[in-house]
Design goal:
OB fold (Dihydrolipoamide Acetyltransferase, E2P), 2 domains, alpha+beta, five-stranded antiparallel beta sheet, elongated
Amino acid sequence: MKVEVHGLTLTYGDAVAVSDLDLTVEEGESLVLLGQSGCGKTSTMRCIAGLETPAAGVISIGGRPVFDSGSGLNRAPNKRNIGMVFQSYAIWPHMTVFENVAFPLKMKGTKGAEMRTAVRETLELVGLDHLADRGASLLSGGQMQRVALARSLAMQPSVLLLDEPLSNLDARLRHRLRMELRELQLRLRVTSMYVTHDQDEALALADRIALMQSGRIVQIGTPPEIYAKPRSASIAEFLGVDNIIPVTREDASCVRLPSAGQKLQVEPYEATGDLRLCIRAEDVLLGPDGMKDTDLGPDGMTVTNALPGKVAGFVFQGSTVVYRIRVGTDLELDAVQLRSSGPLLGLDDAVTVALPPGAIRVLPAEVPVEEPAGVPA
């Protein structure tokens, strides 16, 4: 079902956790709330679930209000038909897998063959039907999280809320369950909201991402939109952009590095004020020492924005190598190169760094507060 949030504000004493937030999750959509700890993403989800009482706002599920500060309406959590999966699993260790999944159905009055069928089908959906009779305390962390997910799905919720459910798992298991969760969401098309601080997780699981800072949505869009077009340098940094450099404006397609005084050609930009040049490490090109603009680089393309530098450090990562290049006295750039692209560089090796204009984004340091929150880039 469709979820609509209007003017949501949540306070704890004088502290504002969520500020005048508007958000719509379409029916069957997977929306991820992404942001750093304390940005208000979990608080927003808890308000929708009915676990927090907002100071103001309206929340509707399937066109039916479940909270309205104006009229005093506040439906209890168990009257909202919401399934919730927590970071801590929250399963009952003294019960079997079957009993854990059956519990919410019993609370709804489902009995007999109907309940057994629903539990078996849901366990099969999450790949745990062979463990139905096993005690929950004997499960691995990944299996426990599947039980928690099955328990929420078994009640056929109008909305599924997931609060960082994979954060307690190791990296390999997180990756596998991330894929399984996405496959389930695409197959079932249940309306879902997922809270995380992990940008890779958000990109993998979302139809749309709502990025939050300081209790408000500062950008919302599809994963490709968010990845390619962050609205500010602070958003870009959170999304894993390695190179964020203060610059000053020369004109609509040129900026200057204040430290070196060098001009750089960039794609036309509209940002004003406190500016940052943002470029991902994988887009930074490395070439031999002494290369200049208009030379041909190792890839056969004309070099643009050539900067002389030296290798200040490197990290070998198997198929790639991450180099840190010192340019001048106070500028360092990260560059990711394929191991197969040439011999490994050593410490203090002289190189040329090239910054392709098409890979550069010139952005304001922060999203201007006066702009409406949640407007796509």
